[in-house]
Amino acid sequence: MTPDRIVLTLPPDPAFARLTRLATLHFLRHHGIRAVEARRRAAAVERRTRAALRTAQRRPATAGALALTLVTRGRALEVRLRRNRGAADRLFVVLRPEGAA
Question: How far is it, in rounded angstroms, from Cα 27 to Cα 21?
């Protein structure tokens, strides 16, 4: 199996935070995570991203685009948020169900 990687680059505007929820929800459901857990995790990603985008919007001189990265790593699904050339914050890692491919 080849690893999947989705990168969503966002400008420093909190209005775009909803896109992170939709992308995360689709990614998790596609990889076999149950609907309730996928919605809960996607909502958490949206909250954390909205906060990061608000901070970036308040400091335009130092802030740039944020990148949400959704990656498969073996049996794990990983979601990271990277701020303007800085270190990535791991939002969460979840194991795929046994039957999911």
Answer: 10
